[in-house]
């Protein structure tokens, strides 16, 4: 009897150990699943996600301590930055697509997935709260990166300038940034470039030749997207229809909208618990590939030759400032320019940054194997997230020789022609060739056949 009750106690002890082990295992598995599948929101408001969200990607705050200081022989003379505006509400076109999804036959999602702000026409295209926050954070880090340089420059209000396109989202991004860098309002108000004269930030608006080429690029992209859909469409449709209870009529275009909605939910509301639960890192990367078929042809390196020249007026303006800075360093002007996804994509195309950012640089096709696509240099989540930016730092050495360094999204990058991230300015000048001093209007003119 005594022996039996001891073994009973023993059994109970074992049961408790097994139960504790089971609970611990479930907890560990939950934490693993949670950390690998659920995007997180950091206390600073920067949205971290393991999804690739194309042009709706939130800006991922870098670890600025990884930027190498310049050697003591190099003196910073000027900085020039080009930004895409911060996170914005969907444009009218995106809102129309989102409405279509909300009205899909049989759609069964919890009420909090339907977000009235994403289809509120009064907000279309406007800078959103997180867009303001992104710009504030970037401006604060810019102050930390150049503390004495910017403080010295701001003593002469003419030597720091802010320029934006005419769109509210770019203008407000510029004003937010300026408010942090120059809280006492020493500098001039942001210069807003009227759309019909803007050849440097919203350059596509006034370029007939690009408009014409865009038709061809869009047609070619459409053919490749059809190939993509024929390969991946059925699996994607089955997956999404099942998850959403949609009975019929779900197309890959709808799934592309679901993906865009996930991007907005993360970038605008730090909300990973709705549409984003439909995607995992691989599915989001696949949807980005589908988007990039088009972006890489319409704005990027796999479209018309004019894509490689669209940022020439911008580089002409940048080099006008660089050359006057080299002639008269104490009066160098540092400029912060605020534009669009197109601005940065055209800059990237002119500089062939895809060759810096990846090892796979064949044109993106609908049949591209995922294993290759993973290594491609043209990825919109990397080159064109909200608030994306490219900086050019100009230095002089002890012999007055000019050097430059490029920063993409606050991380130093090195052109293949350079042996170090601090590189002779001649390399950049040679790379740009006749893009410096180009006649943008004549490049954009359609000559009669
Ligand atoms: O050209 C535009 O309307 C958007 C790109 O829109 P998407 O094609 O990415 O939706 O550029 P933005 O002003 O947001 O930088």
Automatic annotation (TrEMBL):
<feature type="disulfide bond">
    <location>
        <begin position="418"/>
        <end position="423"/>
    </location>
</feature>
<dbReference type="InterPro" id="IPR029033">
    <property type="entry name" value="His_PPase_superfam"/>
</dbReference>
<dbReference type="GO" id="GO:0052745">
    <property type="term" value="F:inositol phosphate phosphatase activity"/>
</dbReference>
<comment type="similarity">
    <text>Belongs to the histidine acid phosphatase family. MINPP1 subfamily.</text>
</comment>
<keyword id="KW-0812">Transmembrane</keyword>
<dbReference type="Pfam" id="PF00328">
    <property type="entry name" value="His_Phos_2"/>
</dbReference>
<protein>
    <recommendedName>
        <fullName>Multiple inositol polyphosphate phosphatase 1</fullName>
        <ecNumber>3.1.3.62</ecNumber>
        <ecNumber>3.1.3.80</ecNumber>
    </recommendedName>
</protein>
<keyword id="KW-0732">Signal</keyword>
<feature type="transmembrane region" description="Helical">
    <location>
        <begin position="17"/>
        <end position="34"/>
    </location>
</feature>
<keyword id="KW-1015">Disulfide bond</keyword>
<keyword id="KW-1133">Transmembrane helix</keyword>
<dbReference type="GO" id="GO:0005886">
    <property type="term" value="C:plasma membrane"/>
</dbReference>
<keyword id="KW-0325">Glycoprotein</keyword>
<keyword id="KW-0378">Hydrolase</keyword>
<keyword id="KW-1003">Cell membrane</keyword>
<dbReference type="InterPro" id="IPR033379">
    <property type="entry name" value="Acid_Pase_AS"/>
</dbReference>
<dbReference type="GO" id="GO:0003993">
    <property type="term" value="F:acid phosphatase activity"/>
</dbReference>
<dbReference type="GO" id="GO:0034417">
    <property type="term" value="F:bisphosphoglycerate 3-phosphatase activity"/>
</dbReference>
<feature type="disulfide bond">
    <location>
        <begin position="262"/>
        <end position="276"/>
    </location>
</feature>
<dbReference type="InterPro" id="IPR016274">
    <property type="entry name" value="Histidine_acid_Pase_euk"/>
</dbReference>
<dbReference type="InterPro" id="IPR000560">
    <property type="entry name" value="His_Pase_clade-2"/>
</dbReference>
<keyword id="KW-0472">Membrane</keyword>
């Amino acid at each position: 009897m005594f022996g039996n009750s001891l073994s009973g106690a023993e059994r109970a002890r074992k049961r408790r150990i097994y139960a504790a082990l089971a609970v611990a295992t479930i907890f560990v598995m939950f934490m693993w699943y949670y950390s690998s599948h659920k995007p997180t929101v950091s206390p600073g408001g920067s949205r971290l996600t393991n999804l690739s969200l194309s042009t709706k990607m939130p800006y991922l705050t870098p670890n600025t301590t990884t930027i190498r200081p310049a050697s003591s022989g190099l003196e910073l003379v000027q900085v020039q930055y080009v930004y895409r505006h911060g996170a914005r509400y969907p444009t009218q076109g995106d809102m129309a697509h989102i409405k279509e999804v909300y009205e899909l036959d049989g759609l069964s999602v919890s009420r909090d997935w339907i977000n009235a702000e994403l289809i509120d026409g009064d907000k279309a295209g406007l800078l959103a709260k997180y867009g303001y926050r992104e710009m504030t954070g970037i401006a604060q880090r810019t102050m930390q990166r150049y503390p004495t340089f910017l403080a010295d420059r701001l003593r002469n209000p003419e030597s720091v300038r802010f320029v934006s396109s005419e769109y509210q989202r770019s203008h407000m991004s510029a004003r937010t940034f300026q408010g942090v860098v120059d809280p006492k309002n020493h500098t001039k108000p942001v210069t807003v470039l009227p759309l019909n004269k803007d050849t440097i930030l919203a350059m596509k608006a006034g370029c007939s030749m690009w408009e014409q080429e865009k038709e061809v690029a869009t047609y070619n992209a459409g053919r490749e997207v059809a190939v993509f859909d024929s390969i991946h469409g059925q699996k994607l449709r089955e997956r999404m229809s099942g998850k959403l209870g949609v009975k019929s009529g779900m197309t890959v275009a709808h799934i592309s909208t679901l993906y865009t909605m996930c991007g907005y939910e993360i970038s605008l509301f730090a909300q990973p618990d709705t549409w984003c639960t439909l995607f995992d890192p691989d599915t989001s990367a696949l949807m980005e590939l589908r988007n990039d078929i088009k972006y890489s042809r319409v704005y990027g390196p796999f479209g018309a030759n004019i894509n490689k020249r669209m940022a020439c007026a911008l580089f002409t303006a940048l080099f006008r400032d660089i050359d006057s800075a080299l002639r008269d360093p104490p009066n160098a002007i540092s400029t912060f320019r605020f534009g669009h996804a197109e601005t940065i994509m055209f800059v990237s195309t002119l500089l062939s940054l895809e060759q810096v950012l990846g090892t796979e640089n064949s044109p993106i096709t609908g049949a591209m194997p995922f294993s290759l696509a993973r290594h491609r240099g043209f990825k919109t989540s990397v080159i064109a997230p909200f608030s994306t930016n490219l900086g050019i730092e100009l230095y002089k050495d002890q012999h007055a020789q000019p050097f430059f360094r490029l920063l993409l999204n606050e991380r130093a990058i090195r052109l293949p022609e350079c042996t170090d991230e601090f590189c002779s300015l001649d390399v950049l000048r040679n790379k740009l060739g006749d893009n410096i001093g180009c006649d943008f209007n004549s490049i954009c003119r359609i000559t009669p056949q």
